[in-house]
Amino acid sequence: MSPFFIFAICLSIAYILYYGVNIGKDLYAAGKQPASNEEVFEIENSPTETAVSVNEQGDGFFIGNAEPKEPAKVFDPGKEEKEETAETEKRIASLQENLDEADVVSEYGITAPELHELLEGKKTSLFKPEINVIRNVL
Question: Lower Cβ count inside 10 Å, N or C end of the chain?
Fold first, then answer.
C-alpha cells in the first residue's frame, strides 16, 4: 500500500472522529442552552408615551383633536399648469441668454459602412487600425 493511501485513510478517520465529537457535543449540550435567542433589556426610567390621534380630512391629514384652521386645497391642474409653463419659459430664456457660442467638432466619427461592420462583428475595434502583415518574398 502506498504512503498516500495510508495518509488518506488516517485523515478520513480523523475527520470522522472530529465531526462525530462536534455533532455529539451539539446534540447533548443543547439542553444546557437557554430556550430562546432573545435578549431582554430592562429600561427603568423611560418616559411613558401617549398616543396622538391622526385624522383625515379631504386629501390631507391633521394631528390631534383640533380641526385644521384652513380647509384642504383642491388641486386645479389648469391653473398650476399655466404657472409652471410661464416659469419654465422664463428659466429657458435666462439659460439661453447665458449660453456661450461653441464650435462643435465631432471626434472619432465613423461612417455608416464602418458602423455596420462594427455592429455585425466584422470589425473588432473602432480605435485600432487593422494591420496587414506583408512579408517580403524574393
Answer: C
Show the DSSP H helices in the chain as ranges.
Answer: 3-28, 77-98, 112-120
For the CA atoms of 68, 74, 75, 81, the dihedral, rounded to the nearest 10 degrees, stands at -100
* Cell reading at 48: 411613558
Which amino acid, one-letter code, is at 25?
K
- Alpha carbons within 13 angstroms on the beta-carbon side of residue 93 total 6
> Residue with C-alpha cell 465631432?
106
Beta-bridge partners for 60? 57
pTM attached to this predicted model: 0.25
32 three-class SS: helix
pLDDT in tens, 35-65: 677 777 777 777 777 888 888 877 777 787 7
114 and 125 Cβ atoms separated by less than 8 Å: no
In whole angstroms, what is the distance from residue 43 CA to residue 58 CA?
41
